[in-house]
Amino acid sequence: xxxxxxYFTTYDLNLSAVLVSQNFILDEIEKPESGKSLFYFKKSDxxxxxIDSYWKNQLQISPQTLFTSLKSxxxxxxxxxx
Length: 82
Description:
The protein is of the alpha+beta class and 82 residues long. It has one domain (4-79). The protein contains three helices and three strands; from the N terminus they run βαββαα. It is globular and about 35 Å long.
């Protein structure tokens, strides 16, 4: 586990895909043997503002960019790459 106060973490795959599509770096995926994977992003004011916009349904994202990001994350999950 990384230093918790330096990272934003989420179990939300869709939010993670949106963040990756907005050029935030997915630093790590913590994948327990059973249960949900935990996604780590370095915390910043810009990241937190983007998350706020996500929950307020205020982001505009290219569908192709979003689905490419989602596919990339799933590839990391299923290949065992952290």
